[in-house]
Amino acid sequence: MKFALLAATALLAAGCAAIMPTAKQHFDLEAHRGGRGLAPENTLAAFDNAIDLGVTTLELDIGLTADGVVVISHDTSLNPDHTRDASGAWLAPRSGASIRSLTLAQLQTYDVGRLNPSSNYGKQFALQQPRDGERIPTLASLFERVQARGANAATVRFNIETKIDPNKPGETAAPEPMVRALLAEIDKAKMAGRVTVQSFDWRTLALVGQLAPQLPRAYLTTPRTLQDPRWTAGLALSNFASVPQMVKAASANGTGPVIWSPAYADLSPAVIKEAQKLGMTVLPWTVNQRADMQRLMDWGADGIITDYPDMLRDLMRERGLALPPPGKAAP
């Protein structure tokens, strides 16, 4: 009787395990632009908030100023949707100067600490908490901020996107000076072990593979960029059986880990498995709805880039995934 009870218990446990999703213990929780759903995008305030919350990775974008400083900005020009001048006035639509045309000193006169409430963009992020006085930060200042936090931010990684459009070469620095400047900042801060370089412009990733082959590289994709060889460093999708195979070919010149980072709507369980069998991890962007997060997790994605890291963290907790440690509030 005792044996039968034990057997039944074992069968019940096995059945429950069979219907439970497999828990990944190293799921990459990435705060997109520092978590712009919660704090002003790509600011030190946003990055501090994400570290306090507890994320695996800070996702961010970089450009070069006129005097060659690496700064953190998604936009290649000052964005009127979240930029005010020294007098506190919102920039007029389409009036923002390019990041590349301004020195760091000039750039620091603009306030990017809140959203323009009258803009369509501003209305998308009603939960974002303003932080007046925030400036477009340098990459060096972010590295310094994280290092100053010591042990409570010691595991945080950085996923850094080079913002370059091959169809608009005049808007930004060219790939080589941008990559060299980025690698110099990474080396200066001794952060090579904590950085991934990502880009839609695969020319920059080819340069990273050449100049710093050990660094992880993330190949960002959309259907539009995949159809234009100017984005894919000359590769044509028609020459490959699938996007993962194309990414695999593009990444052949480096030795570090390879990540495929597609728009999340372009994924399916089969293509995720294919990419993983080819040795790469799959990190979709930008996923802000709970149902989409759940579906991608069920399909086996290795992580998610989101504007709402708090929502993704809750889902990870519900699924029994290992959570990145929260940091103590920055002084």
From TrEMBL:
Domain of life: Bacteria
Keywords carried by this UniProt record: Signal
Gene3D superfamilies (UniProt xref): Phosphatidylinositol (PI) phosphodiesterase
Record keyword Cytoplasm present: no
InterPro entries with a match to the protein in the record: GP_PDE_dom (IPR030395), PLC-like_Pdiesterase_TIM-brl (IPR017946)
Residue stretches making up the GP-PDE domain: 27-316
Signal peptide: 1-19
GO biological process, one term: lipid metabolic process
Keyword flag Signal: yes
GO molecular function, one term: phosphoric diester hydrolase activity
Pfam families referenced in this protein's UniProt entry, alphabetically: GDPD
PANTHER family xref list: GLYCEROPHOSPHODIESTER PHOSPHODIESTERASE (PTHR46211:SF14), GLYCEROPHOSPHORYL DIESTER PHOSPHODIESTERASE (PTHR46211)
Protein name: Glycerophosphodiester phosphodiesterase
Organism of origin: Variovorax paradoxus
Lineage: Bacteria, Pseudomonadati, Pseudomonadota, Betaproteobacteria, Burkholderiales
